[in-house]
Request: fold
Amino acid sequence: MNSYDEQVKLAFDPEEFRREGRKVVDQLADFLAASNSEINPIVYPYEDPDKMFESWADRFGAAPSTPFPDLLPEILARSNNLLHPRFIGHQCTTALPLAALAGFVGQFLNNGSAVYEMGPVNVAMERRIIRWMAGLAGFGPDADGIFTSGGSSGNLTALLAARQAAASGNVWRGGVGSEPPLAVLVSAQCHYSIRRSVAVMGLGEDAVVPVAVDERFHMTAEGFDRAMDEAERRGRRPFALVANGCSTATGSYDDLEKAADWAESRGLWLHVDGAHGAAALLSPKYRALLRGLHRADSFIWDAHKNMLMPALITAVVFREGGHSYEAFSQKASYLFEKSAADEWYNYAHRTMECTKTMMGMRLFASLAAYGTDFFAGYITAMYDLTREFARRLRATGDFETAVEPESNIICFRYLKAGESDIDGLQRRIRRALLERGRFYIVQTELAGRMWLRCTLINPRTTAADLDALMDEIRTVAR
Ligand SMILES: Cc1ncc(COP(=O)(O)O)c(C=O)c1O
Reply:
């Protein structure tokens, strides 16, 4: 047998797989056990990007160089550790180890799910979850939707459907030139993916008309009217309003009842970007933050943010499910036999992607294993902890918060006595924290001022970790 044949045999050898798999899972379990400050204080071992890139040079070639279990220790040691309770930076969550295992099974089976036959179990599980989410949102039996790879793609999908529903002709066929100039009214605090989606749709960034927000970063009633006037001034016809549930920078929830009232009165499609905040629907204590969501035409919900799932899993849910077939009005005869709406199970009709990962299966497996109450408890605990952190920050006298947190996102800053450049100080603190590696937090600009920003997204983070963060900030600020 030549060496290629031998390699194929070895690559698919069940016993070799069992041995390698055990080595990998053992290393991951050890890594998890060490992911806490008593054993390993380092969350993120920062390395300069160019040096990092250089260090991976010449590490593979024509012949095998490193068995995966031998490469893994270095990957683990040099990665950002989202499992660490002191990872409190971005909204990308620590993954439930079980969900990671389910993800591994998804990669192993590799059922692409573009069409039913490529991933039958996953296709059915996705629809079960979409129905469950639609029910939580208060949508009726006509609701439907799909999963897509991330919130950015989800927002684009919803806005494409909104445009198709609002357009007088058929933009899909005739292109944007076949329509009078359109506009989308968006919270001034919207995620950049909204702006990007509108530009990708060929409408131009000028089509994005911001709606002013108040001091707590919620869209205002006057903001709606002024944005409408501004769209008119630009010679554009708005077709959608995008509200936050909740915003990225400060985690603020727009008043969805007010947004729905206003959108309805103007005949606009209401899309709610719930990438981060829709998971509050799970919590009896916090679901009122999304009051009015049942009146939205569409919303998105990222399970890789506030549902402890490995990236990426985004649900795009439509109140009138028929709209989910309008975003991509296209036919590929080698994939589809019937019209899109006759084939709910061939998801590629309704997604930007053709092949998708088995994302619904990861979430379904986790919901089945832990129960929905577990996720409800998680949201409640994280939102409670963030409010407690705000209380502690304010009690110190040397920190201030930007706004009272509404979700598990919090912006704050350190006020060092005698410091004239408070914005520069926050930048220096964040840089120093990054280089020390004991906490991972981020920063954001709000109304021209610089703030430190945390997302309390790891269920193993405690109030003691947050006290330690305040001490660390004081230390580096000195
Ligand atoms: C409100 C909001 N929408 C959309 C996105 C984009 O999501 P993704 O990173 O999954 O593309 C984010 C990401 O932070 C977000 O906070």
In short: Residues 91, 150-152, 155, 191, 193, 248, 273, 275-276, 302, 312, 314 surround pyridoxal-5'-phosphate (CB under 6 Å). The first helix runs from residue 3 to 11.
